[in-house]
Amino acid sequence: AHVFLLCSVSTTLSLSLLLFLSLKLAIEDNQQASVREIMGSEEENSKSWPPWLKPLLQEKFFVQCKLHADSHKSECNMYCLDCTNGPLCSFCLSFHKDHHAIQIRRSSYHDVIRVSEIQKFLDITGVQTYVINSAKVVFLNERPQPRPGKGVVNTCQVCYRSLVDSFRFCSLGCKISGTSKNFDKKRKDSTNNLSDSDDSYSSTTTSNGRLKKNSDMINNNSFTPSTPPLSAVNGRIVKRRKGIPHRAPFGGLIIEY
């Protein structure tokens, strides 16, 4: 009996161990499959854009060059598309003579690039263009906008900035985000979260509006009007009687020299 009990216990333990190992292998396979899917989508998105675009959008331009700090023309406003090793000044550009370089400009403290330069290397279809100093430019990254103006019909698909009807994005960075495969899912999730927050906000504003009205009534009742009340007889404003004039304390003092 003891031998049979030991055999049954060992069989149960072995079955439990096999079940645990099979579940562990299944979980690891699912994790690896999800990782491969994510990496595959990221690789596909990166292949659709040139390798220099994302590093370009992450750089900070118009800073002083560390190698040529003594020169008055050491502002870094150039970028080499072949090296992608950071912003360059006019002196650093001499070491990139045979490379493709572009110039970054500024508009209202935001980085822009001329359409005539960037369209040689990148498709900017759907990006809003602006005319600055008689030249068409596009912004590198999105510009925050609190809320679109009244009557705005078309907005950026990423940051919701107001646009002209024929455009979809306000900057190159928004086009990268808006054309990725994962963007539709992220936008749906953000839209759902935004609708939930709007509902809660509307309810709070309604209650605050009622409180505000009550407070206004209290304030109006607590303060006396600055103007005198209308008379009940003729409806005219009752004028106050002019007070008795008083001489100044030293008004009659005469100083002789």
Automatic annotation (TrEMBL):
**Quick one: where's region Disordered?**
183-229
Quick one: signal sequence residues?
1-26
Q: Provide this UniProt record's keywords sorted from A to Z.
A: Signal
Q: Compositional bias of type Polar residues: which residue ranges?
A: 216-225
Record carries keyword Lipid biosynthesis: no
Could you name the domain of life of the organism this protein comes from?
Answer: Eukaryota
- Does the keyword section mention Membrane? no
Q: Which Pfam families match?
A: PLATZ (PF04640)
InterPro entries xref list: PLATZ
Composition bias type Low complexity, residue spans = 191-208
Name this polypeptide is given: PLATZ transcription factor family protein
Could you read off the lineage of the organism from its UniProt record?
Eukaryota, Viridiplantae, Streptophyta, Embryophyta, Tracheophyta
